[in-house]
Structures are given as structure tokens and as C-alpha cells.
Amino acid sequence: MNKIKLAIIGAGVRGRYTYGEFIKDNNDICEVVAVVERKIGRKEKFKEIFDLSEDKVFEDINDFFEKEKMADAVIVCSNDNTNFYIATTALEKGYDVLVEGPVANNLDKLVHLKDICKNNKDKVFMAAMPFRYSKLFLKLREIILSKEMGSLININYNSYIGYKKFVHNFVRGNWRLDNDTAPLILTNSCYDLDILEFLTNSQCEKISSFGQLNHFIRKNLQLDMSELCIRCSKDKECPYCAQKIYLDDDEMIQAVHINLTKENLKNILEEGQYGQCVYSCDNNVSDNLISILKFKNSITATLNISAFTKEENRNITLMFTHGEIYADLQENTIIIKKFINEKEVVIKFDKENADGKLIKAFINEIENRNLNNLKSSVLSTINSHVTGFACEFANVSETIVDIGEFWSESCEMTKKIEKLLLSK
């Protein structure tokens, strides 16, 4: 097997640590040959780590696409609002593509995605949906399909973002404005919607949703607080204080700066958005969202997304006609309780790297070209993306949304608007 040549689009946390580290650790099967990154510090650090020549390092994605094809594939891990453009342009240029979710951050783009997939059947076009490769979720799906617990009736799915991650991403960070990126249900939970379809082996038929921004709002900025955490008198008692979050947590520090020093961290906390009080930011993303889903096979589910937990985690309870199952993603544990007896069966999995499995699968598909059986194809994620947009509409309109009708109307409206624009 020849080494698969990869271009990384976006050298942030995912590009540098998730994909970059995998490539470093598996340099017998793949290698980085180019990077696109607009931030100078990230770009230079990535260039140094992977020993890239200057002509293989780009600040602008269009400069990269103007060059002759220089890799077998691109991995798109840039901003959500650029995923669709970069991925589809890369396909046009002849690259295989792995793209982070959400693949499309608005309905106009999503409407065209199915045709794009059909027109690129000769390419590996995969979405980064790592839960499909997780032993825990694969085991749950195996149990569901086996019917050993009877029929699945209901799923209670909790996506706990964790207070640190929420204020970093959705209050101070790049996902704080949903009109610039996408709704929370997609930026945080396109993976959750995808795995719900994967587990139920069905598509969502109807959805309702309730959520809003409750806590991280300007009216909670008290008179004795400062708009910068480093100058605030409440720093010792505030859990959201920037110094606590970024100075005491190595993972959070990595998210702030790719090449951290005391000097640039001081500058970030004194001048940048990550040092700002959580009650004085320009954020508008809901900090709590609960949705009710009805699937075409009559299974129902609740999806609860919350900022207000100590740790980031996902847990799930599945209720069957003959028992229940509880699964915890952080603990990598499944607990099975059958109604017929008092015995609990506990399945404990070793820690695994589902992202690594996803990347390896992508590389294998590039080599093997098994294009009709992609485990995480973009085409297979379109329905869950539609559900995400329907969820946001249900929340805003305070209605129960029929997803089939919502999608038909969205497609029709998009065609009318495009026809009108083209006629001018």
C-alpha cells in the first residue's frame, strides 16, 4: 500500500490534534503534504511539525485550489460555514474528501447535497461521524437489531456539553453566533442526531423542540463585575472565570493557542475574546435545548442538550418491551436490565479512539475504493441534517414539525429563490 497523501484544511484543535496526531502515529500509511490555515501561528506550527515546504502551505483556500492537485484527499476541519464550499470544491478538483459536521450549515446548501453526492459517485465523500465506529454504539445497535430485549420503544439521550466547553465554544468562541455558523442542534449535536438514526434504523418523521439562551446574557453582568475576567472582583467565586478555565486545564489551553507561551496567554486574557466575561459577550446560542423525536418506525426519543454539567459526557437510556439499557460514553459502559430477572449485565469497554477508527476507515476506502458501502458517507447523513434544521424551526416557531413536509417546502422554496436570482 502506497502512502495516502493528505491535505489538511484547518490546523486548529481538530486538524492539529485529532487528525494531525493520527497521521504522525500512522505515517506508514498516510502523510500530510499540504495545509491550509489562515492563522499564522497555527500555520507555522503545522508547517514545522510536518516539515512542509513553503509552496505546500496556504493561508487562503482558493490559492490551494488554484494549484494542481497535490494530494489524494483533503480533510476539511475548518469553520462550519466553510465546510460545504471547501468539500464540494475539493470534489470538483478531483480529491476524495472527509468533512467535519455539520456538512452544510444552512438549508440552501443542504438542498443540493444529494445531487452533489450522486454526481461524485467515483469519489470517497465521507462525513466525520465517529460514533458510528464506537464499540459502545455498535454493541447497542447489535442488541437492538437482535430483538433480545424485545422491541425498542423509546430512547432518552443526554448530550452534556459541560460548562467549560460550552463557554469556550458557544459563549466566547467561534460558535457563539448561530447565524455565523449553524444552530446548536447541528454544531454540537449533528453527531447525536446521526447516531439516533443509526440506532433506530429509521428516519425522524416529526420533531418538537424547546430551548433558549437562559444564563449567559448581559442582564446577569452585575455592577461590581468587569467585562474582562482578569480585572474582575468576582474571579475567585465565578466558575466561568477565564483564568480558571484556561490556566488550570491543559486541554482548554490547547484550544486557545496552538503554540502557547505565558506572554501570548496573557495577551489573550487581557485583549482577546477568550478573556471576556461570559455575561458581556455577543453570543446568542441556546444554553439548554430539549427535543422530542418520532421516527417512522414509531420509536420515540428525547434529545437533551445542556451546558450546565460539570463534565462533558453523553449518556443514553434505551427502553424496550422486555427490558432497559443504560449506556455511558464517558465510562464506556453498558448496563443491561431484563424484566424477566433481577440480574444486571455490565459490559465495560476499553478506552478507544473512535476518531482514529474513522480516519483509518477513510484511508482504507481511498485505497480500496469500496464506494457503494461507505460506513459514514455524506449521503447517509443528509436526513439527520434535515432533522437538525427542522428541530431549529420547531423551536423558533413553537410547533411540531413534519419533517417530510418541511423538507419538501424547503426544496421548493430554494428552487424558486434560485430561479428568481438567475432571472435577474
UniProtKB/TrEMBL annotation:
Residues 4-126 form the Gfo/Idh/MocA-like oxidoreductase N-terminal domain. It is an enzyme of class 1 (oxidoreductase). Its EC number is 1.1.1.369. It holds the Pfam family GFO_IDH_MocA. The keyword Endoplasmic reticulum does not apply. One of its GO terms (molecular function) is oxidoreductase activity. Keywords: Oxidoreductase. The keyword Signal does not apply. Coiled coil: none annotated. This is Inositol 2-dehydrogenase/D-chiro-inositol 3-dehydrogenase.
